[in-house]
From TrEMBL:
Protein name stated in the entry: Hydrogen dehydrogenase
Keywords: Oxidoreductase
Pfam family, one: Oxidored_q6
InterPro entries reported for this sequence: Hydrogenase_assoc-protein, NADH_UbQ_OxRdtase-like_20kDa, NiFe_Hase_small_N_sf
EC number: 1.12.1.2
SUPFAM superfamilies named in the record: HydA/Nqo6-like
Domain NADH:ubiquinone oxidoreductase-like 20kDa subunit residues, every copy: 14-162
Length: 179
């Protein structure tokens, strides 16, 4: 039997969802017997190939992330929104209460840890911010929602097992943990 093909991206997020995937620990070996990771932040691949399952973690906060989400949707038979940022917008939506110009000033000038002696906000060097950070399904169709911050390893593994069995999982409330 051919292995399922998987692509993952993390957008406006902390990488906690992908770290939680690694928390599957030794069980990942049996999963990788059935799945080939074709595109991921940890795989050296330049183009998102056609895959069976795509996983997006992180919210959409800029035009580059919107482009990646649309590309993932095009290339994936099943698209999974993974983690609270992808499902709900997550902590990224805290910026939604500020004008975009103020967000950029906070990030590039006013933050205590920022070293920017000229006080310049990059222009062409950074993707254009959306007016608000938003969940994935405001731009592309999502087939599976996996909430959690981050989703725990057992839930992630269960979702993959369900998908490999040909079922579209709906994560039960008792599997949604917020540790």
């Amino acid at each position: 039997m051919a292995k399922a093909k998987l692509a993952t991206v993390w957008l406006e997020a902390c990488a906690g969802c992908h770290m939680s995937f690694l928390d599957v620990d030794e069980r990942i070996v049996s999963l990788l017997e059935k799945v080939d990771i074709m595109y991921s932040p940890v795989v050296d691949s330049k183009e998102i190939p056609k895959v069976d399952v795509g996983v997006i973690s992180g919210a959409l906060g800029n035009d580059e992330e919107v482009h990646l989400a649309k590309k993932m949707r095009e290339q994936c038979d099943i698209l999974v929104a993974w983690g609270d940022c992808a499902v709900f917008g997550g902590i990224n939506t805290m910026r939604n209460f500020m004008p975009t110009k103020e967000v950029l000033e906070k990030a590039y000038i006013d933050t205590v840890s920022t070293v920017n002696p000229k006080g310049v906000i990059p222009g062409e060097d950074i993707p254009e911010l959306l007016p608000k950070a938003i969940p994935i399904d405001q731009v592309v169709k999502v087939d599976v929602y996996v909430p959690g911050c981050p989703p725990d390893a057992d839930t992630i593994l269960w979702v993959f097992q369900e998908l490999l069995e040909g079922r579209i999982p709906k994560v039960p409330a008792d599997m949604m943990r917020y540790d």
